[in-house]
Design a protein that fits this description.
This protein has three helices and no strands. By secondary structure, it is mainly α.
């Protein structure tokens, strides 16, 4: 079940990062200045959206056997993605 959560979270992260990255590019921003913040804010928005979506579908009770709250699970996924954001920020 954790792989399903991670897959949905990462898919939502890519969608939100694309949205947050596309608007500044359309208005004259550069890729190097937009990529790392878009990935950061995309992952933050994906955590909230995934939480809301799973609550709406009533899927969270299936994760009770992990003995961790949904906020901890999504927070761990968010923090696991941040080294990539930091690497992109330092590289670009």
């Amino acid at each position: 079940m954790i792989f399903y959560l991670a897959r949905k979270y990462l898919a939502n992260t890519l969608v939100f990062a694309a949205i947050f990255g596309l608007f500044p590019i359309l208005f004259g921003g550069s890729w190097t200045a937009v990529l790392a913040p878009a990935l950061f804010w995309g992952s933050a928005a994906a955590a909230g959206y995934t939480y809301w979506r799973f609550r709406k579908k009533k899927v969270w009770p299936l994760y009770d056997n992990l003995r961790l709250s949904p906020v901890v699970l999504l927070g761990a996924l968010f923090l696991a993605l941040q080294p990539l954001t930091l690497a992109l920020a330092l590289y670009l």
